TrEMBL record:
<dbReference type="InterPro" id="IPR035902">
    <property type="entry name" value="Nuc_phospho_transferase"/>
</dbReference>
<protein>
    <recommendedName>
        <fullName>Thymidine phosphorylase</fullName>
        <ecNumber>2.4.2.4</ecNumber>
    </recommendedName>
</protein>
<dbReference type="InterPro" id="IPR013102">
    <property type="entry name" value="PYNP_C"/>
</dbReference>
<dbReference type="GO" id="GO:0005829">
    <property type="term" value="C:cytosol"/>
</dbReference>
<dbReference type="Pfam" id="PF02885">
    <property type="entry name" value="Glycos_trans_3N"/>
</dbReference>
<dbReference type="GO" id="GO:0004645">
    <property type="term" value="F:1,4-alpha-oligoglucan phosphorylase activity"/>
</dbReference>
<dbReference type="GO" id="GO:0006213">
    <property type="term" value="P:pyrimidine nucleoside metabolic process"/>
</dbReference>
<dbReference type="InterPro" id="IPR018090">
    <property type="entry name" value="Pyrmidine_PPas_bac/euk"/>
</dbReference>
<dbReference type="InterPro" id="IPR036320">
    <property type="entry name" value="Glycosyl_Trfase_fam3_N_dom_sf"/>
</dbReference>
<dbReference type="GO" id="GO:0006206">
    <property type="term" value="P:pyrimidine nucleobase metabolic process"/>
</dbReference>
<dbReference type="InterPro" id="IPR036566">
    <property type="entry name" value="PYNP-like_C_sf"/>
</dbReference>
<comment type="subunit">
    <text>Homodimer.</text>
</comment>
<feature type="domain" description="Pyrimidine nucleoside phosphorylase C-terminal">
    <location>
        <begin position="352"/>
        <end position="426"/>
    </location>
</feature>
<keyword id="KW-0808">Transferase</keyword>
<dbReference type="Pfam" id="PF07831">
    <property type="entry name" value="PYNP_C"/>
</dbReference>
<comment type="pathway">
    <text>Pyrimidine metabolism; dTMP biosynthesis via salvage pathway; dTMP from thymine: step 1/2.</text>
</comment>
<comment type="function">
    <text>Catalyzes the reversible phosphorolysis of thymidine. The produced molecules are then utilized as carbon and energy sources or in the rescue of pyrimidine bases for nucleotide synthesis.</text>
</comment>
Length: 444
């Protein structure tokens, strides 16, 4: 089979056969197809689209490109995961997984790195000294048996095709095409061997999905596709205009995640964790209602059980007992990477904060986190911002509203201007829109 012929066919908007998609994914997995051709195929798919059958075949072949996690029969009916389409300050997975484990669920969470300006959960977890993002089959089994959860990246054996496509989608600006998003997410989730999936599909100016109607189309497609792959999915459409929580940036978000696990009420994010967790417990049959599930989630976040699960997960995944204890019960910040410099930006007016745009803040944090070309790592995990004031709070003129953590002595003037322009202060307090727009799938 000729890859150039397949590329030409998709370029011209024709539907690819099952055999042609199999050939493409096999070549992606074993390295026989050049990266330039993979990029060309992704761009052709982005521009010309895919049929439902093409999407189904692509997703199944991505699953078949590697191994599927196998779990004991006693875990069946309790295996659940969560996925978010990504957002600025979206750290939900980090406190959610141990909270669900504390409620009796098994959470084998495969997660990814940053795409575009949204931070990746793996990048955040790697801020923790010693944390291992790769586990053996035996270690995964042990984590679920003894703790109830783990969080790791895809391995060479799990969805290897997606690992290649994920990287090239980012390089070729083909991240935000809904069929590629659905295939990438659901192939990984099918490989986890889960029974249930809760998805947080974000809608708004700070995400690729700008309108509710398009989000509904994507949601129904994912639900139908997940049925064919053998697990149940429920999708929450949530509004995303403002950063989630007060911290944006890898180590800063780990700090805030632990604050949540310590029972702190963090704006815009704790309620989201309760909603998602409540739906996971209800969908899996552990509670008779979503509201009962939310109450159980609140209980384990406030009584320390979720925090204890998180600490145990850290130890199982390579973090020393001393560092784990310091992170969870001591001075959390001192155990994490810290930026050399901090700059406070002052409010230019007095009044109510009616809006803070997440998109420019995400872009600034992404740029602050880039390292120099000689660095062995591509990310500086200590940088980011803290919102000292957030939406629906009152601020005085010349009062600091945002704290920037940066590695260079002088903060870029463009970054300062972008952050100043991201906030809207008014003398009139407006009602903040409900974060949860609607719930779709599996009897919602």
């Amino acid at each position: 089979m000729d890859m150039k012929y397949i590329l030409r066919k998709k370029r011209d908007g024709e539907e690819l056969s099952e055999e042609e998609i199999k050939f493409f994914i096999k070549g992606v997995s074993n390295g026989t197809i050049h990266e330039a051709q993979i990029g060309a195929m992704l761009m052709a798919i982005f521009i010309k689209g895919m049929t439902q059958q093409e999407c189904v075949t692509l997703t199944k072949e991505m699953v078949f490109s590697g191994d599927t996690m196998q779990w004991p029969a006693k875990f069946r009916g309790s295996l659940v995961d969560k996925h978010s389409t990504g957002g600025v300050g979206d750290k939900v997975s980090i406190p959610l997984a141990p909270a669900l484990a504390a409620c009796g669920l098994k959470v084998p969470m495969l997660t990814g790195r940053c795409l575009s300006f949204t931070g990746g959960t793996l990048d955040k977890l790697e801020s923790i000294p010693g944390f291992r993002i790769s586990l053996t089959d035996t270690e995964m089994q042990s984590c679920l048996e003894e703790v109830g959860c783990f969080m790791m990246g895809t391995t060479e054996r799990i969805c290897p095709a997606d690992k290649v496509l994920y990287k090239i989608r980012d390089l070729t600006s083909t991240v935000d095409y809904y069929n590629l998003i659905a295939s990438s997410i659901l192939s990984k989730k099918a490989s986890e061997g889960i029974d249930y999936l809760i998805m947080d599909l974000k809608v708004g100016s700070a995400t690729f999905m700008k309108d509710v109607e398009s989000a509904r189309v994507l949601a129904h497609q994912k639900i139908n596709l997940s049925k064919l792959l053998g697990f149940k999915t429920r999708i929450l459409l949530t509004r995303h205009e403002t950063p989630l929580g007060r911290c944006v940036g890898n180590s800063l978000e780990i700090f805030e995640s632990i604050e949540i696990l310590r029972g702190k009420n963090v704006p815009l994010i704790k309620d989201l964790i309760l909603h998602i967790g409540g739906h996971a417990l209800h969908l899996s049959g552990k509670t008779s209602s979503v509201e009962e599930g939310e109450l159980k989630m609140r209980e384990v976040l406030e009584n320390g059980k979720a925090l204890e699960c998180f600490k145990n997960m850290l130890i199982k995944q390579g973090v020393s007992e001393e560092v784990s204890h310091q992170l969870c019960f001591g001075d959390t910040r001192s155990a994490l990477p810290q930026a050399k410099y901090q700059t406070r930006i002052l409010a230019q007016n007095t009044g109510w904060i009616n809006r803070i745009e997440a998109f420019p803040i995400g872009k600034v944090c992404y740029e602050l986190g880039k390292t120099n070309e000689n660095s062995s790592d591509t990310l500086n995990r200590s940088t980011g911002v803290e919102l000292l004031k957030t939406v629906d709070e009152f601020v005085e003129i010349n009062e600091p509203w945002i704290l920037v953590h940066h590695s260079e002595e002088q903060l870029n003037e463009d970054h300062i201007n972008a952050l100043k322009a991201s906030i809207t202060i008014s003398s009139v307090r407006i009602e903040i829109e409900n974060q949860l727009i609607e719930v779709i799938g599996e009897d919602s």
